[in-house]
Amino acid sequence: MAAGLQVFGQPASTDVARVLTCLFEKNLEFELVRIDTFKREHKLPEFIKLRDPNGQVTFKHGDKTLVDSRAICRYVCTQFPDEGNKSLYGTGSLERASIEQWLQAEAQNFSPPSSALVFHLAFAPHLNIPQDNAVIAENEKKLQQVLNVYEDILSKNEYLAGDEFTLADLSHLPNSHYIVSSERGRKLFTGRKNVARWYDKISKRETWQQVVKMQMEHPGAFE
Asked: What does it catalyze (predicted)?
């Protein structure tokens, strides 16, 4: 059993949500220390950018401290390979290489436009910030191009890296969840048959539902 695992942050943060889901998938015990970064004015710019993980999530394991959510997920899977979901980060070098390619794709291609849409479609209304339709349209176009590639891959595979749920899929959950919470954003997913099937399946995982419940109980960003 893992000891001394701590997560600092709010479940409403996409970075924190990614880490929490990974920990639930690995069936690890941990302590969540809720740090309200959203109410502090000096933290608001980082929150608005939604692209810099610093200040969004901090993970401690003994004397080891990490602040990037994807690096934290890799670390958790590597440190505790035999706990919980053993195939989350692949069980062989080829599987892991494929998962890594998708983690890179998510971070570099999916995350930038989806993070912008998360802010403008999901967070801005709660922060009384006017939506920027030009920015929304620009990032919708970028995300559509990414999802078109996903649609093709998912017509051949059950999940992104093959026929099992892995970090490749998990890493997409936080941003996707906020996007589909708006009618405009939802169409980006429902308009693609295989993407819709994939998201419906991964979003119903018990581990992700645990995180969604935590977000609803402690909105954090919107209080």
From this structure: RX + glutathione = an S-substituted glutathione + a halide anion + H(+)
